[in-house]
Amino acid sequence: xxRGLVFAVLLVGVVLQSARPGLAYLWAHQWLxxxxxxxxxxxxxxxxxxxxxxxxxxxREQERLNVQPVKRFFVHHTTxxxxxxxxxxxxxMRYWQNFHMDTRGWDDLGYS
Length: 112
What we know:
- GO terms for molecular function: N-acetylmuramoyl-L-alanine amidase activity.
- Keywords: Signal.
- InterPro entries: Amidase/PGRP_sf, PGRP.
- One of its GO terms (biological process) is peptidoglycan catabolic process.
- By secondary structure, this protein is mainly α.
- The chain folds into two domains: 46 residues, no CATH class; 65 residues, Lysozyme-like.
- Helix content is 50%, strand content 0%.
- The longest helix is centred in the first third of the chain and has 18 residues.
- It is globular, with a radius of gyration of 21 Å.
- The N and C termini lie far apart (55 Å).
- 1% of the residues are buried.
């Protein structure tokens, strides 16, 4: 009986993990508030791309934030439609960085 129970628990864990990234983690940590679970599920497939990978220009000046590490940030929307591939998204990042630096006169891309 105990082998069957162990197998069932392992099977549930494998199914949850393969169904969607992060579900097994959330299932095992039921103490997480509901809003946190929704954010983790929505963001589980996000890939963060470093500046050098999308071809960022170096900033004119660089200042450290007073609060390290940053506790919160937001992703601002644009009037553009979504991008779904690396090359299109990289081109858009370069466009917005050029706009912010060359047109607005900012030191870099406008981060939150």
